[in-house]
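sorry for the late reply, my laptop died twice this morning and i had to redo everyting from scratch. anyway the thing you sent over, i finally got around to it. pasting the sequence first so we're on the same page, its 257 residues, then the predicted structure underneath. double check i copied it right bc i was rushing
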Amino acid sequence: MKAILEIESLKKYYGKQGNLTKALDGITFQVMPGEFLGIMGSSGSGKTTLLNCIATVISPTGGKLNMQGCEIQSLKGKKLAEYRGQKIGYLFQNFELLDNLTGRENILLPLSLHNINTKESNKRLRQLSDYLEITDVLDKFPSQMSGGQKQRIAAARALILNPGVILADEPTGALDSNNARLLMEKLTGLNRNDNATILMVTHDSNAASYCKRILFIQDGVIFHELRRDVPDESRQDFYHRILKVMAQLGGGGIHVF
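ok and here's the structure:
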């Protein structure tokens, strides 16, 4: 099986010689189709910088980013817009919903930007809203929703174009433990049942325990890797293995849900 996303010797430096910050210092890994991959590390380790390079929010200093055979850094104009809109779906920590649009309008916005017809748009909306249990808030504005409802609306918006890879940046960071658990169960279900490929950045060990594989980043390099190699390994056992690695890194939230 060929990787859907390939990262090779990725670097992102800030500042000038003598006062150089190496946010990413030569990171290499692959993401396979249908994988649920977690990226962990303490604050300032480079994990969000990595996600933002993949999302083309920022440009790397060096290295290669390849999505399904296409070099991401070379994309411009229409092809770049297509990549951002259809190849990836971005799930933000703070939702990033438009306050003057209803939940329905927030979710459908990417479809209107990419000229998806109304019949297909409504079909996708119905499927996602049923699965994410947000049908009852589709016509509410973000100010009328709970944190969990906002994040599930944001998840539907990220998924509505059927992206090749879902990028999730601390998706449980603004949620209480119950809503965090509900969101992670929904993401796990999408990964398991729909073979969705998910790349999630998190500092939370419990959220990470839903992943199949985790890369730990420290000072811009990959420090360690964990896999759920044992088919019957419980999420709780995997969680405790994650905690041990995070203790070596000097961090790791204990956010039980």
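Residues 129 and 135 are 5 Å apart (CA to CA).
thats about all i looked at so far, will dig more tmrw
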